[in-house]
Amino acid sequence: MAVIDKIAWIHLVEGAVLSTRSKSKDVYYLPGGKREPGESDVDTLVREIREELSVAIAPDSAAHLGTFEAQAHGHATGITVRMTCYTADYAGVLRASSEIEEVAWLTHADRHRVSPVDQIIFDHLRAATSLR
After folding, report:
1. 16-37: pLDDT as tens digits
2. pLDDT for 39-73, tens place per residue?
3. CATH number at residue 89
4. Which DSSP string corresponds to 73-112?
5. From edge to edge, which strands make up the β-sheet containing 32-34?
6. C-alpha–C-alpha distance, residues 85 and 62, integer Å
7. H or E segment at 36?
C-alpha cells in the first residue's frame, strides 16, 4: 500500500483552524506538504509554510500534535496519506503565495469542505482543543 508522507501546521485562533485551498483544488487542506529527501519534520514544516503562507515558523517552538492517516483525496483507492501535525509559533503576516489560491479559517462545521485526513484531524481538534 502506497503512503504519501506529509507534514502539516495546526494553527488555531479563536476556535478556528487555518486552512488553505490550492489552485484547481475543490477542498481545503491544512497548510504543509511533502518532505524533500533528507528533510526532518521541522525542516519540512518551516519550508512548506514559508512557501505557502510567506511566514517564518519558529523551529524551536514546533510541537508534535499527532499523526493521522486516511485515504488520499484525489488518489486511487488504497493510496493513503500520513499527516504528521505540528503546532508552532511564527513571524510575519499570513498571506497566500505559491500554489495557494485561498486562505480560510475553518471550524468543525466546515468539516465537509476538507480532505478525508483533515476531517479526522478536525474531529481530533474538536475533542482535544478549542476548535468550534
Report:
1. 999 999 988 889 999 999 999 9
2. 999 999 999 999 999 999 999 999 999 999 999 98
3. 3.90.79.10
4. TTS-TT-EEEEEEEE--EES-----TTEEEEEEE-GGGGG
5. 32-34, 3-9, 80-87, 63-71
6. 10
7. none
Rounded Cα distance, 126 and 9, in Å = 16
The x, y and z cell numbers of residue 110, run together, are 466546515
- Domain of 23, in residue numbers: 3-128
pLDDT tens per residue across span 95-107: 999 789 999 999 9
Closest by Cα among 74, 29, 84, 69 to 52? 29
Number of domains present in the structure of the chain = 1
> Is residue 16 within 8 Å of residue 5, measured between CB atoms?
no
* Burial tier of 38 (Cβ tally within 10 Å: 0-12, 13-18, 19+): exposed
- Which of 2, 77, 82, 79 is CA-nearest to residue 41? 82
